[in-house]
Structure formats: structure tokens, C-alpha cells
Design brief:
The complex is a heterodimer of chains A (466) and B (316). By secondary structure, chain A is an alpha/beta fold. Among the domains of chain A are: 2-111, 3-Layer(aba) Sandwich (Rossmann fold); 302-465, no CATH class. Chain A contains 17 helices and eight strands. In chain A, helix 8 runs antiparallel to helix 9 and helix 9 runs antiparallel to helix 10 (351-367). Chain A is globular and about 65 Å long. The two termini of chain B are 26 Å apart. Chain B has helices spanning 6-9, 18-44, 53-63, 74-92, 108-129, 133-164, 169-174, 181-184, 186-199, 223-248, 259-280, 286-315; strands at 11-12, 100-101. The relative contact order of chain B is 0.17. Chain B has one domain. Chain B has 316 residues and is mainly α. Classes of the chains: A alpha/beta (466), B mainly alpha (316). At the A-B interface, helix 1, helix 2, helix 9, helix 11 and helix 16 of A face helix 2, helix 3, helix 6 and helix 11 of B.
């Protein structure tokens, strides 16, 4: 027992925490990061690397479901920490440290939990928000080749269920999150529609009549693409889904080559990503060929939390935090550390120190040739693009221009300048993100999104400007 | 104590000494991890977790359970992860440690190159095996980086071999009794270090493990799988730094200290620079670095080879 005990005590010093930020819990998350740093603990980027699952704030139903799935994916020894407010951080971390040392409990946990990783039987929309571990689930679906498809031909299908008019009305953009096992919409040419009557829809979930966007369904192996070129008989075995994951189906990429399409949700639990934003991406290789944006829990949950917990947060601190994300994504560790210390100085209400930190940050970011090299040419936006997408003027130029203007604004705000235009006019509408990032490589997508200084839940800003 | 006849002085030790070589490599790898962690803690103002943090992280990963994801190719995943650690041991086998060596191959330089090319497969397997989009993207990112750094690295390895007229590592070290190769072929030396950073998936070449793909190849790894892959990266960095000593830094040559001590001192110095640079450089985006690799590094390495060849011919 002595060795186990010693190992546990050493291990706890290097604890890694997967931080889930419920919308509106910016302050709690930042406080958590500061306390983690004090202990020498580090953030985990994925559940696979996490010892502690820390949920900042009270998650809404969709996020709560995700948290459960993340919990299932943690290797163990694993501990949950509910961090309800900034003041709850220290006790929550102390509890987590104590619980991590409880080896017998972890042993029991390991025996009682599922011994094999599983895909939940019902995949709902929310299920996609996790970090892409099942990003290949829907690979069987090809959203690329919809152009020539005749949706009305589905009308002949008899699914024997009320509310199935949705096959005609459904928007295919909404198919992320659905999983239609063994349906083949592809081979219409040689296909006998009558045979659909015999299809087993047993494992699809149509419990909600009129569920128009089919969240909660299971269409594995579905191919909306290759009309007329599919050989239906080869699918006869229906063994297209080893362990429940359909094989990836091809689709034409930018160059007209057939490339597998993978589906990857970015967010809402993803480090250095705007809290609450979910971007459902269809990837070919590492290029995002289609995307669909949403906010977790429909954004409905956030306002209430704000009014209760948010204190006064300087807008400059929020901007510095966005800079931390961007600088971490391009991998300049020291610059990111500077931005973080500037953020923390701003939050600690130390005007002199904050000003110094921001000045230094401003200087090093402007001078860094590496920041320039990494960000030049990323998502260039001309004035016409801004107008078309309804973006504020600060988004003009490429990511490098935006990062400079961001640092510039932080500096102006710290030096007491007027924040400028009202917050509402400055906001980047998150619904525009899919239009901006489609066609980019995934690393570029991350840089592009970070450079937009997005905030899907801008209440923190408004408090800051008040 | 410059040595003129290295062949006669070099002793090939029995295979059992490989254990000691492995321990030295592990110590160097730990040094690299500790230095990196200390530099991180200082830059971020962490309250705890400096030099000893890698030991705690090791304890943590030893205590952590292995996990897999649905339909993961566990075998390939583990071959990739463990291969990183194993590969670094293969690499140090041909490095003379003072007057001792484990294997005095007459194609030692090619052996080094073979092992570093193996990393292509290992990183990709680890990324592929996890059956996760992030891992897969990470694995392919490494291949894209490999396309950019590997050919320049090969040509950089050629330069010392031409100058020494041998592919035997001890001959190359012995050929520098007057002037280190790092001094008169600096381009090859720098490109060699770029290559070492590359096959260690380190710093600027860590796009395969990038924050933008949630850790990429590492995203799904836990417990001992993660430990061996991470340890393998540090060990490869240490092995690459150690290989630069006979190749470019005169081997064990130096005043006062015994030869093996000079090998250690020089290795630690190169390793420290590589670790320190990580914090200063961004992660090179594979698409952007490809241009640098082919337009700048490759011609520079070939030009260096040409210069070295001309010098060798001229000196007769």
C-alpha cells in the first residue's frame, strides 16, 4: 500500500483538469485557471488526459448531457468538481485533491463503470458537442452531394410512424447529429422503393412526432450522394458499421477527387474556443467543407446566470483572454503567458501593474515576426465582406490585422480611453462563422475564429462597460 | 586532448552496457522535460511545478488507467506510442560515448537517418490508431512536416560524411580534430537541428500535437500510452542532440575533462538550447513550413554539400 500511496501523492501534484465553461461563467473559469496555476496544476485538452472534470457554473440540459459523456471518456482515477461560482473555486480544488487520493474508491469506480467504450444508443444533437471522439460516427452520411437529389422521392417511403412528413421537409443542414442506420438514400436508380417498407427502423428514435430536423435519429451508412452510381446489393450485408460506427463515405473535394467526409463538432468543450459556441464541421482531410453553427442550450440558459454571478469584469481583461487563446493556438508560449499575466493584472484591480503588463504585451506582439508569419493571410476580409456578413469594422483585414487592432484596443482601454462604439455594434454575430470558415483547413479555422474576438454570450462585456 | 586515431581508441562494449546507455538517455530526456517544465513555470508564474514536475507527471500517468475509444486500432496505437521510446534507444546505439560505443557501424550516419525516418510511421500510427479525427489530422500534419524537413536533414547529414570521407560516426568525430564541423558548415548544423526538432515532434514541429487540434495525436492517449509517447519525444530530442556531438561538435574532444564528460556537456548544451527555443518559436503551420523547407532549407543544404565537397577536393 505504501507504494500506491506515494504514487498517488506524487501524481496529485501534476493533476490535469478538463474545464467545462458553462455559458456566462467566464469569471469562474478564469479564477479556476488562476488557482490551478498556483497549485501547479495544468489544464487538460481532452477527457483522455484529464483527472478532474471541473464544470464552471450550472450547465443547461444539453451541456449537462455532454458533461456526462466527457465523464464517461475519462480514464480514471477521475473526480468531478462542480465550481458554481468564483468563490467556490478553492474549496472545489481542495475537495478534488482529496478525492483523487482515495485509491479504493477509484478502484471501485474502475470495476463498476463500463469496461468498453461505447457510443450512446441515442445520438442527439447535443451529443455532438463533445470533442470529436465520435467524430466519425456520421461519416456514413454525405452532405456534399445533395444537389441532384430529389427529396420528394422519399415520399413513397412508409415508415409506419406518425410525423414522417419530415423526410420531405427536413433541411439537410440539420442532419448533423442524426444517424440513420442502414438507410440508403443513394441508390435511387436501381432501388426498389417498396423494399423500404421492410426496413427496420427499430433503432431509430422517432419518439417525437414532427421532429423536423431529426435530431436523435440514427442514419448510419446513409449516402445522400452517389445517385445512380451506387451498387445497392453491395450494401446488402448492412455491415457498414463496425462497432456502431459507419464507414466513412466519400464525397467530391475541392479538386473533384473522392475524399472521405468526416464529421467533427468543434466546441462547446474545447480549449481556446469561444465558450458555448458549437461548430459542426464536415471535414475532407483537414479541410472544412461545410459547417453549421449553434450555441449550446440554444443560448437560453446564459442570461440568468449572468445576473446572479457576474461582477464587474473589465472588457480589456476579456480581450486579453481572447489573446491568450489566439497566442496559444499559434504556439507562442511566452507571448501567451504574457497575455495571461496582463489579464490577471487587469482582474486584480491593480491599475499600475496592469498598464505595465499591457504595454509590454502590446510591444512584444507588435514586434513579433512569428505572430505576423503565423497569422498573415488568415481569413482576409475586405470592406465588402464585412458588409455582406454584417461584421464590425474591427474585423477588417486578416487575422494579423485583427490581432494588432485587438492589442491596440486593450491598450487604449487600459489607458482610460472610451471603449468606442457601443458593444452591440461591435459584436461579431456567431451565426456568420460557418460562412467565414467553410473551405479553410481546420488549424486555420481555429485561428480565424479566435481572431474574430467572438463572444457568443456577450453579457460579460456589457457589465464591463457599464 | 585531441585524438588523431579514433579508430584505435574506440572500444565496442558488450551489449549488456546498453542498459547503461539507456539510463543515460533517460536521464537526458528527464533533464529536457525538467528544463522545459521549469521554463514554463517561470514564464507563467506557476506557484508550483518546476524542475520536478516531470516526475509527478510520470507518477500521474503511471497511476492513470489506459483507455481506448470505440473501434480504436489499439495495436497500431500502442506500437506507435511505444515505438517512439524504443526508436530513440536505437538511435543512441551508434553514438560514441567518449571512447566506448555500443555499435561501431560503418554506416552509422545512415543508421541514424533510418531511425529518424521510422518516426514518420510511429507518429502516424499513433494518430491513426486512436480512431479520432483530431488524432488523424495530427498524424497527417506530422507527415506534412516530415515532407518539409526530412530531405534537408538528409542532405545536412551528408555534409559531415563527405568531409570525413566516411559514414562511420567515430570517423566523423575524429575528422574534426582541428575545427568542428559546426564552425565551417554552419548551415548543415542548423538544418540538422531543425531535423532533430522535427523528428522529436518538438516545439515548432509539434503541430501534430497542436492546441488547435486538442492535442492531435495525443488527444485520445492516456496512462502509460501517453507516457511512452511523451517520453519518446524527449528521448528523441536528447538522442538527436547527442548525435550532433560526434557529427558537428568534435565528439569527445576538449580540454581537462575526460572524453565521455565532454560528450555529456555538449549534449546537454545543445539539448538546453532546443528546449529553450520551444518557448520562443511558434508552431510552424505545416502548409507554411513546406515552402520554407523546399525553397530555403533544401537548396541551402545542397549548397552546403557543394561547398564541403569543393573544400574536400581542394584540400586533396
Amino acid at each position: 500500500m505504501g507504494l500506491t500511496e506515494t504514487l498517488a501523492r506524487l501524481a496529485v501534484r501534476a493533476t490535469r483538469i478538463l474545464v467545462v465553461e458553462a455559458p456566462g461563467q467566464w469569471q469562474t473559469r478564469v479564477e479556476l485557471e488562476q488557482q490551478m496555476l498556483r497549485l501547479g496544476w495544468r489544464p487538460a485538452w481532452t477527457p483522455g488526459d484529464a483527472d478532474v472534470l471541473a464544470v464552471c457554473g450550472a450547465p443547461g440540459p444539453e451541456l449537462a448531457q455532454l458533461v456526462e459523456r466527457l465523464w464517461e471518456q475519462m480514464p480514471g482515477p477521475r473526480v468531478r468538481a462542480a465550481v458554481t461560482s468564483p468563490t467556490a473555486v478553492t474549496p472545489a480544488l481542495n475537495d478534488a485533491a482529496a478525492l483523487l487520493l482515495d485509491t479504493p474508491a477509484h478502484r471501485t469506480d474502475a470495476q463498476e463503470r463500463a469496461q468498453k467504450p461505447q457510443i450512446p444508443a441515442v445520438m442527439d444533437h447535443g451529443g455532438h458537442g463533445e470533442m470529436g471522439h465520435h467524430g466519425i460516427d456520421h461519416s456514413g452520411m454525405n452532405h456534399g452531394g445533395h444537389d441532384g437529389m430529389d427529396h420528394t422521392s422519399h415520399g413513397g417511403m412508409d415508415q409506419g410512424q406518425p410525423g414522417d412528413e419530415d423526410h420531405r421537409t427536413m433541411k439537410h443542414e440539420d442532419h448533423h447529429g442524426t444517424d440513420h442506420s442502414s438507410m440508403n438514400h443513394g441508390g435511387h436508380d436501381g432501388m426498389d422503393h417498396g423494399s423500404h417498407r421492410g426496413m427496420d427502423h427499430g433503432d431509430t428514435d422517432q419518439g417525437q412526432p414532427g421532429d423536423e430536423d431529426h435530431h436523435g435519429m440514427n442514419h448510419s451508412g446513409m449516402n445522400h450522394g452517389g445517385h445512380g452510381e451506387m451498387d445497392h446489393s453491395s450494401h446488402g450485408g448492412m455491415d457498414m458499421a463496425p462497432e456502431g460506427i459507419p464507414l466513412a463515405q466519400g464525397g467530391e473535394d475541392r479538386d473533384g477527387l473522392g475524399v472521405d467526409v468526416l464529421h467533427l463538432p468543434l466546441g462547446p468543450v474545447l480549449p481556446f474556443w469561444p465558450a458555448g459556441l458549437v461548430l459542426h464541421c464536415s471535414l475532407q482531410g483537414d479541410v472544412v467543407v461545410a459547417a453549421d453553427a449553434a450555441v449550446v442550450d440554444g443560448g437560453s440558459h446564459a442570461d440568468g446566470i449572468h445576473s446572479r454571478h457576474s461582477g464587474l469584469v473589465p472588457a480589456a481583461a476579456v480581450r486579453c483572454d481572447n489573446l491568450v487563446a489566439l497566442l496559444t493556438l499559434i504556439g507562442t508560449q511566452d507571448l501567451a503567458a504574457r497575455a495571461r499575466s496582463a489579464r490577471d493584472a487587469l482582474l486584480h484591480g491593480d491599475p499600475g501593474g496592469a498598464r505595465g503588463a499591457v504595454e509590454r504585451l502590446h510591444r512584444v506582439v507588435r514586434r513579433s515576426i512569428f505572430v505576423r508569419w503565423s497569422l498573415r493571410g488568415v481569413l482576409p476580409l475586405a470592406p465588402a465582406d464585412l458588409e455582406r456578413h454584417g461584421l464590425p469594422d474591427r474585423c477588417l483585414g486578416d487575422a494579423y490585422d485583427r490581432v494588432l487592432s485587438l492589442v491596440e484596443r486593450v491598450r487604449a482601454e487600459v489607458n482610460g480611453a472610451n471603449p468606442g462604439a457601443p458593444v452591440g455594434a461591435e459584436r461579431v454575430p456567431w451565426g456568420m462563422v460557418p460562412h467565414l470558415v467553410t473551405g479553410l483547413e481546420i488549424g486555420t479555422v481555429r485561428l480565424a475564429v479566435a481572431s474574430l474576438d467572438l463572444d457568443p454570450f456577450p453579457a460579460v462585456h456589457e457589465v464591463g462597460h457599464a | 586532448m585531441p585524438e588523431n586515431m579514433p579508430e584505435t581508441l574506440l572500444t565496442t562494449v558488450p551489449a549488456g552496457w546498453a542498459v547503461l546507455a539507456g539510463m543515460i538517455l533517460c536521464a537526458l530526456a528527464f533533464f529536457a522535460a525538467a528544463l522545459d517544465s521549469a521554463l514554463s513555470a517561470r514564464a507563467e508564474g506557476a506557484g508550483r511545478g518546476g524542475w520536478l514536475a516531470p516526475a509527478w507527471s510520470t507518477a500521474r500517468l503511471l497511476r492513470q488507467r489506459r483507455r481506448t475509444v470505440v473501434a480504436a486500432d489499439t495495436l497500431l496505437l500502442r506500437v506507435g506510442a511505444a515505438g517512439m521510446l524504443g526508436g530513440s534507444f536505437l538511435m543512441v546505439a551508434v553514438i560514441p560515448f567518449g571512447r566506448w560505443t555500443l555499435a561501431d557501424l560503418d554506416v552509422g550516419v545512415v543508421w541514424f537517418n533510418t531511425v529518424d525516418v521510422m518516426v514518420w510511421a510511429l507518429v502516424w500510427l499513433a494518430g491513426w490508431g486512436a480512431n479520432s479525427v483530431h488524432g488523424l489530422v495530427g498524424g497527417y500534419r506530422f507527415l506534412a512536416h516530415g515532407l518539409a524537413y526530412e530531405l534537408p536533414l538528409m542532405f545536412a547529414l551528408v555534409a559531415p560524411a563527405i568531409a570525413a570521407g566516411s559514414l562511420r560516426v567515430s570517423d566523423v568525430a575524429g575528422a574534426q580534430d582541428r575545427l568542428w564541423f559546426a564552425v565551417w558548415m554552419p548551415v548543415a548544423f542548423v538544418i540538422f537541428l531543425v531535423g532533430v526538432t522535427g523528428f522529436s515532434v518538438w516545439g515548432p514541429f509539434a503541430a501534430a500535437l497542436g492546441a488547435d487540434v486538442a492535442g492531435g495525436v495525443l488527444a485520445e492517449l492516456s496512462g502509460v500510452d501517453r507516457l511512452v509517447l511523451q517520453a519518446g519525444r524527449y528521448a528523441f530530442l536528447a538522442a538527436g542532440a547527442a548525435f550532433s556531438v560526434p557529427l558537428f561538435l568534435g565528439g569527445g574532444a576538449g580540454p581537462f575533462l575526460p572524453e565521455w564528460a565532454w560528450v555529456v556537456v555538449k549534449t546537454v548544451a545543445v539539448l538546453a538550447v532546443l528546449v529553450w527555443l520551444r518557448r520562443k518559436l511558434p508552431v510552424f503551420r505545416p502548409d507554411r513550413f513546406l515552402e520554407i523547407g523546399w525553397v530555403v532549407l533544401l537548396p541551402a543544404a545542397v549548397a552546403q554539400d557543394l561547398v564541403v565537397s569543393l573544400v574536400v577536393v581542394w584540400k586533396g
